[in-house]
Design a protein that fits this description.
This protein has 321 residues and is α/β, with parallel strands linked by helices. The chain has 11 helices and 16 strands. The strands form 3 sheets. Strands 3, 5, 6, 7, 8, 15 and 16 form a 7-stranded mixed β-sheet that branches. A 6-stranded parallel β-sheet has the order 11-10-9-12-13-14, with helices on both faces. The protein has a 3-stranded antiparallel β-sheet with strand order 2-1-4, with no helix packed on it. NADP nicotinamide-adenine-dinucleotide phosphate (NAP) binds next to helix 1, helix 3 and helix 4.
Length: 321
């Protein structure tokens, strides 16, 4: 079968399509014939050896896919750690979800990582429960026009959250506003810490979904309302997060982590999340945002688009076969 191989951990240029043997399923796994693969920032980090636990190359790239379960013919979308970008992949059954009838493979592959991550961010922020009487939950969402960001806006709208979102581009922000983002901040033009302070009349937000790292962890802490939390779930800048302990004291604030790779192993967390997400899907309330579709043999361009932060929503690879 054809597969997208990471030949060296030197960045996207070392990706190449090769013929490899079909996967052999381990106990608990099934074979899926893959139609489309969803690109995640973690895939870009993996090509540089920057993702925890990456095996030594050569290895097959990709962690998210949609296709058909070989034995049953069921259309599925799934999440795995490696080897999704190939004509066939071996996946654990509990990490496969039935694709809604109306969705294409491209839409389905844009679902698992973005929507589970976004849902779990709200869950950890206490926002899947109604706010106290007379209050509204407020969230600051960085990279609001990206894969997780656009999912977070759709879910935030359903939860009645007042959302503040950052992006480098007015064009991207205009598209996210159509999804329900109330307060758009172009961080190339405005300091988001100032913007949040002004927009919330000095009060701040209950949660920041922080995936930049470096100084942004500290800056995001200064955007908090009393008892708020920064959830660190990525470091797209490549810089280790910096803490502002004084701001944590001042707001009695929390900085915590969240990692889907780990949480996805816990059925007691994933099953209730899927129950809510699938109910919203059934009501047509979640529409995965696909910004760009590339054939697998142009994967290098796709990875670079994400690496350079030029994407809107999800970047998808069409898998031949
Ligand atoms: N912890 C978890 O379980 C988990 C799960 C999924 C994703 N993540 C993390 O969440 C983040 C978003 O992932 P994603 O796959 O949905 O990607 P994405 O948001 O679709 O793409 C990354 C976006 O980040 C923004 N950005 C800001 N600074 C950047 C920089 N220095 N380099 C590149 N992009 C930059 C860009 O948007 P603007 O130009 O609009 O700012 C870019 O479009 C990543 O950090 C990823 O590692 C974590």
């Amino acid at each position: 079968m054809k597969a997208l191989m990471i030949t060296r951990l030197t960045g996207p240029d070392a990706l190449t399509v090769q013929d490899v043997s079909d996967p052999s399923p381990k106990p608990g796994q099934v074979i899926v014939e893959v139609g489309a693969g969803g690109l995640n920032f973690a895939d870009v980090m993996t090509t540089k050896g920057g993702y925890p636990g990456t095996p030594a190359p050569p290895l097959i790239a990709g962690r998210e896919f949609a296709g058909v379960e070989e034995k049953t013919g069921r259309r599925v979308m799934g999440y795995t750690q490696w080897a999704a970008f190939a004509e066939k992949t071996a996946a654990y059954s509990h990490m496969l979800w039935t694709v809604p009838d109306a969705w294409t493979d491209e839409q389905a592959t844009a679902f698992p990582v973005n929507y589970f991550t976004a849902y779990l961010l709200y869950w950890q922020s206490g926002m899947t429960q109604p706010p106290a009487a007379g209050r509204t939950h407020r969230a600051l969402i960085h990279a609001v026009a990206g894969g997780v960001g656009t999912a977070a806006v759709q879910i935030g709208r359903l939860l009645g959250v007042e959302m503040y979102g950052t992006s480098s581009s007015d064009e991207k922000l205009a598209r996210v506003k159509e999804l329900g983002l109330q307060h758009a901040v172009n961080y190339k033009q405005h300091d988001y810490e100032e913007a949040v302070k002004n927009l919330t009349h000095g009060e701040g937000v209950d949660a920041v979904f922080e995936m930049l790292g470096g100084e942004h962890t500290a800056k995001s802490t200064r955007c908090l309302r009393d008892f708020g939390r920064v959830i660190q779930y990525g470091t797209a800048t490549g810089q280790p997060p910096q803490l502002d302990v004084r701001a944590m004291y001042a707001k009695s604030g929390i900085v915590q982590g969240l990692w889907l790779s780990y949480l996805s192993q816990k059925r007691e967390i994933m099953e209730p999340a899927w129950k809510q997400l699938s109910a919203w899907i059934a009501e047509d309330k979640l529409i995965p945002q696909i910004g760009h579709v590339f054939p697998m043999d142009r994967a290098i361009e796709a990875y670079k688009l994400l690496e350079e932060g030029k994407n809107y929503g999800k970047v998808v690879l069409k898998i031949p076969g």
